[in-house]
Amino acid sequence: MSTLRFRVVEKAFQTKPHEVAVPSERPGDYFAKYVFNREKMFKYLPSDVYARLVDTMDNGAVLERNDADKVAEGMMRWAMELGATHYTHWFQPLTEGTAEKHDAFVEHDGKGGMIEEFSGKLLVQQEPDASSFPNGGIRNTFEARGYSAWDPSSPVFIVDDTLCIPTVFIAYTGESLDYKAPLLKALSAVNKAAVDVCHYFDPKVQKVVAYLGWEQEYFLVDEGLYAARPDLLLTGRTLMGHEASKNQQLEDHYFGAIPSRVAAFMKDLEIQALELGIPVKTRHNEVAPNQFELAPIFEECNLAVDHNMLIMALMRKVARTHGFRVLLHEKPFKGVNGSGKHNNWSLGTDTGVLLMSPGKTPEENLRFITFIVNTLMAVYRHNGLLKASIMSATNAHRLGANEAPPAIISSFLGSQLTKVLEHMEDSSTDELITIDGKHGMKLDIPQIPELMIDNTDRNRTSPFAFTGNRFEFRAVGSEANCASGMIALNTAVAEQLVEFKHEVDALIEQGEPKVSALIQVIRKYIKQCKNICFDGNGYSEEWKAEAARRGLDCETSVPVIFDQYLTPESIRMFESTGVMTRAELKARNEVKWETYTKKIQIEARVLGDLVMNHIVPTAIEYQSKLIDNVYKLKGLFPEDKANQLSAENMAIICQIAEHTSFIKEHVDSMIEARKVANKITNEREKAVAYHDTIAPMLEQIRYHIDKLELIVDDQMWTLPKYRELLFIR
Ligand code: ADP
Ligand code: MG
Q: Is the pTM of this model over 0.90?
């Protein structure tokens, strides 16, 4: 009998919410308590150093070594007052997490003692012994070394006793080995390109910032139950488990009352997030049982990415103090919704204008249309790449299932914006422009602000939806580093804006007035990128056929989707904007393929082990009990009667035999298939083999395990079931 399972279930039922120590101050008082933000810089740094550091943060000015020393000294003083003893460069290697190596603030004093010290040199650059981070062949242990370098645009913060310094991680030969370095380059490219385009409308614009507001979905499970599920522990998802009779059919979880144990976790998480300067704002139940969402107020993209990485780590930590485990996997449970991370993205100027927001004057609206249409063009031209940027072994379970966006990138604009674009496309330039004394030009576009108020016609099936003042990239996976999608999107928009300016300038040079040049190019783009716009049901079979006709990327095999990074268009885009070179793209793809293979490989091993150690022995034990019963019936009753009475059990005995033999055979052939695939040396081909031959077997085997779960005596089943995992708080 499975005593462990019953013990953990019982304990999970009885766990009471933990008390949360709520600070007596208001959130405004403890917000960013552990962040060395401008207020603290001002307090802890000499005023001239502060001014130069601000220039570095805002404008990328070089910070002299002397100043860096002063900054380091101020940082250390502040950090030590808050109890920090160590510091670390905090970076985002090409795994899905962050990396850190802690050093104490100590140095020899030259007299046999120790002094507390932290210099500008240590702040600015370090050489982590990072030879085992994924690098796709760029960094061989014996060749180029890697180093981490301070990113002053994201403030340092304290976690526990450690001062964390956000850094990029790059090879000595200059190639990026992380997510942050190319993200910073992409943000700088889009800044430059967008500023140039803004100058058509306002010469005062000096800077354009990309904003990101992520919405993080996640599941919580009781820690004891989690520990009794080796598949959750090792792969982040359940590789087996029959659907509970009740899951999300009644739609009673979405926006429902938050259970008290979960509420205590959320409260604790929010306090700690606010102390780290993460402006968390929204929390609610999600569609699936035990699924929740957390969202902050949007921030500058680089900072938002750091904050998302930080909060994922924080969630894991805080969940454990509440007896939970947080599941960030995109699809921890079959049959209920998976988790995503909607990336709300927009551009804004240093003059305070949100470029994806309609304005009040015709000029403002022409600027609005300019940025919307260029974004659509970028998404259209690089739709395959954008899909590749959010694709992973884990997100593949979610995309294309009837809950998340389909595995085809398209954009939903809503009826109002669609009408505006249609109007613009159809009217001739003369019709569109009328002279309006004071304002100069007036566009005959319906007044957009009033029209935009109604933002309710939302299309949940769209992977890239316009939502009033931003685009919502919904295909991003819950576990992913947002940077990956943000690098692709911002770079694509940067490249597009450069081309747009090029075309408009050419017309102006030919004598075309500015507004009419802008309109001509925009009109051409509206025609060209129409194929990316789709307002219908993204789940339908018709859309798949239609999307293929429109030439949109419909590939569904994860390793093949990664090829998108190496098409001539993608390489041109990344190289022309200075974001990544062909060599970097190639190396990073090696990492993607290798990671894909490893993930499927681990799942296949875990499934094989569970089958041999849990499923088959339990099923056979139960089968033996039934066989025993059949024999005993034969001893008690005449043959006819005994046969009649044991018919049901005989049928179950046969079913168990059929399921277990299928399972065993397929686990064996899965092992053989792995052996074959493992011999392939080319990473891409190996990943394709894992995708084509091994991944489908996981599903086939699971089908039979789940059938067994329904037949076998509940007392004997060792693994916690969905009805326990998903409904216990
Ligand atoms: P939804 O209704 O889509 O679930 P939420 O309130 O959960 O919306 O999250 C929306 C996210 O979008 C928040 O992080 C919010 O700050 C962000 N957001 C709002 N406006 C913008 C904008 N202009 N640019 C980027 N993000 C934005
Ligand atoms: Mg939301």
A: yes
